[in-house]
Amino acid sequence: MNLQLSVIYAEDDSFTRELYAEMLQPFTNDLRLAANGTEALQLYLERPCDLLLTDLMMPGLDGLQLCVELRTCNPDLPVVIVSSHDQGDLLLSSVNLGVDGYLIKPVGPDLLQRTLTRVTERLEARRQLQESARTWKYTFDAIPDLVAILDNHYRVVNLNQTAQEKLQITLSDALGRDYCVLLHENGGWSQECLLHRTQGSGSCLKAAHDTVAMLGGFYKISITPICNDSNQISGLVHVARDITEKTEAEQALRHFSTHDQLTGVFNRCWFETELERLSNGRTWPISVIVSDLDGLKEVNDREGHGAGDELICCAARLMSQCCRADELIARVGGDEFVILLPGLGHDAAAAMLARIRKRLHEQTVTPIVAMSLGCATADGPNQLQAAIVRADQQMYRDKACRKQSEDIYV
Predict the structure, then answer these.
(1) Which superfamily is assigned to 5-138 in CATH?
(2) Torsional class of 49: left (φ above 0), alpha (ψ -120 to 50), beta (otherwise)
(3) The pLDDT of residue 201
(4) Spatial distance between the Cα atoms of 223 and 228, rounded to a whole number of angstroms
């Protein structure tokens, strides 16, 4: 039976050494013999072994001293003492060193085999544990999400490679540090961290159902508690999945679905949805400005649709320059725009209309924009659609008056 062990056997008595070496041969594929502790130590330093068998009483470096030296090199090295001494102090010293076996000479082949089998089983269990630890480490570091293992006070116990790279910190520098502080230093969750610092209680690290903006991107957060044998929470696993690309794609899609691609202002789909929302809301009055470009068809016919598109863009920019952020512009047709003014009454809307007309009159850079304008105000629910109709009618009256006075830019 070959147990596939690499063994160093230290024994100062040559007869005993050769006798036990003969018994050991069937159980090992690598057996090296030493006449004393010094030789055994040198053999180990040249090439480590799986198991040390050693006598206790040897000249120079004795068995116990040899164990101490080798355990310094490898704390997990299995050691079996083969000795004719059974004094209590030697046994106690051996136990304190954590030896794996203490055999009293003479030792028969069966006892030796059972001892080596037991040591082999322990070695195999240790190797499997080490292999599992290596596999776990490789798996942990291969996870593309940021994974942090924390204690109950949010201090770092472990970080995977992705987290170390994103946080620009090594594991040795991160150990024991507050993970919230690390995120804050890298632009993540500053408000959560400040809340935790000022209140002194509660969790600053929590799972988020919504996307969290942090570390220069967007992340989905999950937190799993770590429970001990008593089912008490002893820490947590914090996972942040980078969904920046997905989120930006969704934001772009949402933007394209609500904005006019030519001018960048809102589109008709958004306008109709916003109109319904405002109609069912509590913000009143709401004013509406309707505009229609003059002379677009002539520009398209004379200079081409590229020039016509530029004229439409100039019109959108001109109206945007006259509006605040909460005053919403939408392109609802080829050359038709609507400005929604939540919370503004008739006088404020008229002032806005005057600003737009003043800006139209002061234009000095081509292409010169000319447009007809109309304005109306809804003072309460169920009046908004009617206000849009009135503004539209006023715009057409403005266009007719301008045609009569031949005050149209083409």
Answers:
(1) Response regulator (3.40.50.2300)
(2) beta
(3) 41
(4) 16
Query: Token pair of 60, please?
Result: 């120079």
d(C-alpha 281, C-alpha 301), whole Å: 44
Note every long-range contact of 62-69, with CB atoms under 8 Å and residues 24 or more positions apart, other chains counting: 62/37, 63/10, 63/37, 64/90, 64/93, 64/94, 64/97, 65/37, 66/10, 66/37, 66/40, 66/41, 67/94, 67/97, 67/99, 68/97, 69/37, 69/41
CATH of 143-243, picked from 3.30.450.20, 3.40.640.10, 3.30.420.40, 1.10.760.10, is 3.30.450.20
Per the CB < 8 A criterion, the answer to whether 249 and 260 are in contact is no
pTM (two decimals)? 0.59
Residues whose CB falls within 8 Å of the CB of residue 222, separated by 6 or more in sequence, listed in order: 207, 238, 239, 241
Alpha carbon distances (Å) from 355 to 152, 291, 317, 350: 60, 14, 14, 9
Classify burial at 83, counting beta carbons within 10 Å of its beta carbon; exposed 0-12, middle 13-18, buried 19 or more: buried
The CA–CA distances, whole Å, from 20 to 15, 104, 171, 319 equal: 9, 13, 48, 100
Mean pLDDT of 24-53: 92
pLDDT of residue 135: 94
> Distance between CA atoms of 205 and 154, rounded to whole angstroms?
8
For the chain, the domains span 5-138, 143-243, 259-404
Strand bridging mode 79-83 / 101-104: parallel
Both tokens assigned to 397? 């009256």
Length of the chain: 410
pLDDT tens digits along 62-110: 888 999 999 888 988 899 988 887 777 777 777 777 788 888 888 888 8
The pLDDT tens digits for 289-316 are 999 999 999 999 999 999 999 999 999 9
CATH T-level fold of 259-404: Alpha-Beta Plaits (3.30.70)
